[in-house]
Amino acid sequence: MNEPADKVAAERVVGMVLQDWSTVVTAERQARYHAAAEVARGLFGDMVDLSILANDTILATAYLKTQAVDGLHAGQRMQQHEPVYLGEPLTLKGRIGSIRATAKGNIVIYAFDFRRPNGSIPVTGELISFQVDPAAMRASGAGKPVVADAAGFTKVGHKTLRPELVGEYSFEFPGYLVHFDPKEAAAVGLPAPVAQGLMSLTWMMESLALDGVPKTINIAADFRSPIFWEDSVDIFCRDSTELMVAKAAGSICSLGRITDLVR
Questions:
Q1: Residues 19-34, buried b or exposed e (16+ Cβ, 10 A)?
Q2: Domains parsed from the chain with CATH numbers
Q3: Is 187 helix (H, G, I), strand (E, B) or coil?
Q4: Adjacency order of strands within the sheet including 21-24
Q5: Which of 91, 160, 196, 209 is the most exposed place for a label (fewest CB within 10 A)?
Q6: pLDDT digits (tens, 9 = 90+) for 202-220
Q7: Paired strand residues for 15
Q8: pTM listed for this prediction
């Protein structure tokens, strides 16, 4: 069952087993995410867009959250071994796979199996969270955005964000005010509310689905710099194996790597 837990600090240790999270992607749920990301309704037919399931990895770890910003979403890995269809019930079985210390905090990787009632596992995934050390971040800074090199890439999409779209993509995360509230964003040092990193994963999946919905795929997305709620971004693809989301001004927001793609 998906039951709330007391908001107490939990020590994150390798091997820690997470509470189970039950989920189902209905046609309405998928359509709502897609409308916020300006993805055409029905593009995926009766199949689930893998990026929607990626949102469940955040929901499955929400009970560990103890403050407004408790870990930055640094990346997402999702592997679809076979299609999941709209309306299928799944249970996320999660654990902490690894913890790596850096100069600015810990990189925590949460690993998940998406299990059907019959025990089969059509999807596995990893949520990569950067548990920031605020003092170290203030001392050394967050780093500078990297300028995108689009050589060999083809532009396959463009998105102009709006506050209402960014907020709507986070409709299942009403407590994550950094996506909704300018004052909350300012309180953590951001110039404006930010889009979820998974919006860029949804755009990546859209670009792949335009040539046929993936039946199997292994996609790794790294979120390099924030996308603010009034930014414009371009989506680029190279050989169906590399994807990039970059701001119109030229800095990289997200990078994607694709293997095992079968349409």
A1: eebebebeeebbebbb
A2: 21-262 (3.10.129.10)
A3: helix
A4: 21-24, 89-102, 105-115, 123-132, 72-80, 216-223, 252-262, 242-247, 232-238, 154-160
A5: 160
A6: 999 999 999 999 999 999 9
A7: none
A8: 0.89
Rounded to whole angstroms, the Cα distance separating 112 from 54 reads: 10
Residues with pLDDT less than 50, the chain: 1, 3-9, 137
**58/29 Cα distance (integer angstroms):** 16
The token pair that represents 214 in the structure block:
């993936």
CB 43 within 8 A of CB 52: no
80-111 residue pLDDT tens: 999 999 999 999 999 999 999 887 788 999 99
Please give the structure tokens belonging to residue 110.
Answer: 């949460």
Closest CA to 234 of 212, 251, 210: 251
Long-range contacts of 147-152 (CB under 8 A, 24+ apart): 147/250, 147/251, 147/252, 148/236, 148/244, 148/246, 148/250, 148/251, 148/252, 150/236, 150/244, 150/246, 152/238
43 token code pair? 């593009």
Euclidean distance between CA atoms 98 and 107, whole angstroms: 8
- Give me the amino acid identity at 197: G
